[in-house]
Amino acid sequence: MRALTLLGSLLAALLLASAAPASAHAALRGSDPADGAVLKSSPASVTLTFTEAVGLLDDSFRVYDPTNHRVDTGEAGHGPGGSDTARITFPKKLGTGTFTVAWRVVSADSHPVSGALTFSVGKPSATAVIVSAGPVENPLTGSLYNIGRYVAYLAVALLTGTVAFLAVCRPPDPAPLRTPVRTAWWALLAATLFLFVLRSPYEEGTSPATAFDLSALARSASGRPGLALLARVALLALAAALHLLLRKRTGRDLPSSPSRPLLAAAAALSVALALTWAAAEHASAGIQVPLAMTSSVLHLLSMALWMGGLAALLITLQRSAVPLPAAVVTRFSRTAFGAVTVLVVTGVYQSWRGLGSWQALTDTSYGRLLLVKLAGVTLLLAAASQSRRWTARLAQAPAVPAPERVPLPVGGGPADPPAERQDTPRPDEPPATRDEPGATPNEPGDTPDEPGSTPAGRHQAALRRSVLAEVAVGVAVLGITTILTGTLPGRAAAEAAGSGTAPAAAAGIPAAVVALVPFDVGTPNGHGKVQITLDPGRVGANSVQAVVFGPDGGISAVPELRLSFTLAAQKIGPLPANVTDRGGYWAADSVNLPIAGEWTMSVTVRISDLDQVTVTKKVRIAA
Known about the structure:
Blueprint: H1 2-17, E1 28-32, E2 37-39, E3 45-50, E4 54-64, E5 85-89, E6 97-107, E7 112-121, H2 139-169, H3 178-204, H4 214-222, H5 224-250, H6 260-278, H7 289-319, H8 326-355, H9 360-363, H10 365-396, H11 455-484, H12 490-498, E8 513-520, E9 527-535, E10 540-549, E11 560-567, E12 572-576, E13 580-581, E14 586-593, E15 597-606, E16 612-621
Parallel strand pairs: 2-7
Antiparallel strand pairs: 1-3, 3-5, 4-6, 6-7, 8-9, 9-10, 10-14, 11-12, 11-15, 13-14, 15-16
Helix pairs in contact: 1-2, 1-11, 2-3, 2-6, 2-7, 2-11, 3-4, 3-5, 4-5, 5-6, 6-7, 7-8, 7-11, 8-10, 10-11
């Protein structure tokens, strides 16, 4: 248990360190006007289109003119395209020059996303705007929120899995599981209330100190994630009420043989609890939402049956006052096998839905984290295989005989000695030795009173160690899962990249410049696109990454890629970027762009010894 506590502390530290800005799950697909566009007249509005539905905040849009003054706008709302759009209108003409739009919304799976764009009316102008869209998350708020989510995962697994273990496996002594059930219920309730209080600061990127403002709590209660958390609290209250009713009628906290209505009520509450997660995370947005939510519920319940059941089995093995019958372990083994099967099927579907392509498995943070999780699950399955082996041996071992009990008289006086057996030595006889016929060894550990003295005892001790290993690895996998649910899915990243925009960045205006440059050398299958990212997209040193996409939309390897920058207005350039092939993409660690303005980026793509083409693209570098 001390090892598990240490592991939990390390995972909490990992969650604190992993509160990265790019945790949003909605990616900007496009904007009208487009980022960097030059318009002849003032637009009536700005509309952003995302890869999934988004929710709006009170301050979702801030628009600044070239002199860094806030522009009066209408109230933010959704555009004609539906809930995956965000729109702000302008009540009057804007004037001329370059305008900056900072925006912040909440994706349908509960994570905030922010960014910025610029457009010009008449012609581009120098701008004095020095404004930050702010980090997607306040670092402290984001870390605390992630820890709360992790505790909630652990608690729901322990609560659901322990109750299922009691109902399905029917251990002879349920008393040791009373404390884990109560602890899990209180932990889940506390984590849920904690997440609800932090919900508004998490969405708005503010510090935890703003959490107890009444208006902040009201905003939390009005959004879908906040409503899901409140529904979870209501379900926990209903579960507590059913528990109190059961205790009043039966006089017991945890009945060893629950009735069918009680089992049905527990199953319905478990499904409803799992729905509060599915309704506010990955499954609630993107493609195939009904199927995805069903898969998410099954995945969470299967995880709880397996991991929570393992914890219940471990506690029972360690603390039960009576030897654990092999039938209990066998029942759990069958239940765990079914849960693992459902986990694999739903996990494969959810991975495909989140990735979208094999390439995203190695090219995106989501894919790489998924690989780490798969490695953890592989270790977990290896430990589970060992546990099943010990379970089979325990089932085949002879039962441990109960020790002979000598009854005492009611008065408490000395009892009559039991009838002397034929093989019981008299006091004047020496003890039996190994050399005498029929002698039994007189060694420590050979009496039924000592654990491990029989094959069944040894198998049960080995099973306990194996289950402990499973629980330890499972706790780590849950930590990785918590981080994974806070990472931009590969499918959304690819969709945003394919439309010429980048996933919303964390800080700065602009945080990075991303350009999608089409090319065509004029031969069959000789066309495609080059996605070029300049980070941070400002004056000074910039890193450059370029990815070539072929005609099928997949990443394509080309023998040569050249890149240069020219600022014609100041007669600067061309400045070569000197990108090199890094295995799947081209990059340069530092390209110095000394002056702000609209630069011309020249891209030369060679796809064979004879076929190459040079194309250009305008990019705006901020001061």
